[in-house]
Task: inverse folding
């Protein structure tokens, strides 16, 4: 049987219809639950968290869900990370090891605390930070690890926490993409000193923008809560403003949406998991296409789905496969638009954090860490060979069938020409 002509060669596209998207209601679960809580806020007349109840209730329910005593709602995922970093009271020039596959928000938190980001390499198949590479980057200046649970899958927290304990390091978990993900049955965000979550438009639950920090360490939690609210004492205890913090307060309107979204998180994750796992099972049946790697101890909650290819089995290289999936109308793309480690961006190459200085990299505060492309071979491979698609609760099994049909079409075509 002659394989169907590919769209890249002038054949019909697998799909013309748009895919469900996180950008609008086609891929988001909003409804009467959010509207009812928003109505309550407007009727109360209390839109600020100091006078209302929605943000406080969201914090309580989020903490309870994660089995921790403390949660602090903030204005964004970046604010969550900055709040956690700020609470550690690190010194200018201290170093924080993190991953080169992340959003700039993770790094903003480090640099805006006058600390220096140092980048470990990743596992090429998951793009999660590699514990072995963390060990290689530790110096006498290292004070913390900021690890990112990527695409919905947690990092190897057994090894990461062992490293932190061995070297007496703080651990911040960036859970922006991994709500409800688990490592060995335990919630991501509850291993380290802080877990930081985003509620930005694309995340598993969303308020458009927003975030929340969790912790089980009372002293650090107190510091974080004061940092996020300009170091004001809202308890009535009369403590003075003894440090400089930020205003990262969440409003009651955002808190209302956050609370409604949190209460339907199980439903949202259930929908994402059903379709994503069906897609992964289908990919297993397509020669030359390789499903996302998931660690046996990990519970994946599918912020994005991912795959790679076996070029020899498929009979096509990465660039050829990319052109084919785009032409077929499939939602898969290589992982990032930049196509390189985040530390190759001009901000890092030029040490451009404050004016024309190179602070905090410049001596005597810090050291001028050099960020070189060749230091991240696994990251470089992943940027060219891991395809992902933004996933959401709007995807159906029929959508999955369309993606699989397109991937089979590509596989059949190129394999027939080997």
Result:
């Amino acid at each position: 049987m002659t394989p169907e002509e590919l769209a890249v060669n002038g054949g019909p596209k697998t799909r013309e219809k748009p895919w469900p998207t996180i950008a609008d209601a086609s891929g988001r679960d909003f409804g009467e639950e959010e509207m009812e809580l928003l109505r309550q806020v407007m009727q109360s007349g209390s839109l600020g968290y100091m006078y209302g109840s929605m943000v406080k209730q969201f914090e309580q329910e989020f903490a309870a869900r994660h089995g921790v005593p403390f949660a602090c709602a903030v204005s964004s995922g970046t604010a969550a990370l900055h709040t956690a970093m700020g609470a550690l009271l690190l010194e200018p020039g201290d170093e924080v090891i993190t991953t080169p596959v992340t959003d700039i928000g993770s790094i903003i938190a480090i640099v805006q605390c006058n600390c220096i980001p140092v980048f470990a390499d990743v596992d090429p198949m998951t793009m999660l930070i590699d514990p072995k590479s963390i060990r290689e980057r530790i110096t006498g200046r290292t004070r913390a690890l900021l690890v990112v649970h990527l695409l919905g899958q947690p990092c190897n927290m057994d090894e990461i926490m062992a490293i932190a304990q061995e070297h007496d390091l703080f651990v911040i978990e960036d859970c922006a993409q991994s709500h409800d993900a688990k490592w060995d049955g335990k919630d991501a965000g509850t291993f380290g000193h802080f877990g930081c979550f985003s509620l930005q438009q694309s995340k598993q639950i969303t308020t458009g923008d927003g975030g929340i920090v969790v912790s089980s360490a009372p002293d650090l939690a107190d510091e974080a809560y004061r940092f996020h609210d300009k170091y004001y004492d809202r308890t009535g205890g009369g403590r003075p403003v003894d440090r400089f913090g930020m205003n990262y307060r969440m409003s009651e309107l955002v808190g209302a949406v956050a609370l409604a979204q949190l209460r339907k998180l199980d439903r949202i994750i259930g929908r994402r998991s059903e379709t994503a796992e069906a897609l992964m099972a289908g990919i297993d049946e397509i020669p030359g296409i390789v499903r996302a790697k998931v660690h046996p101890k990990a519970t994946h909650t599918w912020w994005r789905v991912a795959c790679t290819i076996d070029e020899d089995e498929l009979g096509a290289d990465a660039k050829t496969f990319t052109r084919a999936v785009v032409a077929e109308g499939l939602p898969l793309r290589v992982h990032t638009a930049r196509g390189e480690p985040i530390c190759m961006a001009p901000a890092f190459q030029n040490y451009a954090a404050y004016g024309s200085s190179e602070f905090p990299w410049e001596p005597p505060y810090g050291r001028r860490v050099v960020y070189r492309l060749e230091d991240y071979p696994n990251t470089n491979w992943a940027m060219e060979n891991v395809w992902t698609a933004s996933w959401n609760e709007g995807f159906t099994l029929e959508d999955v069938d369309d993606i699989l049909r397109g991937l089979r079409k590509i596989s059949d075509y190129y394999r027939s020409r080997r």
About this structure: The chain is about 35% helix and 15% strand. Residues 32-264 form a domain with the Aspartate Aminotransferase; domain 2 fold (CATH 3.40.640.10). The chain has two domains: 7-28+266-337+380-415, 32-264. The mean pLDDT is 96.
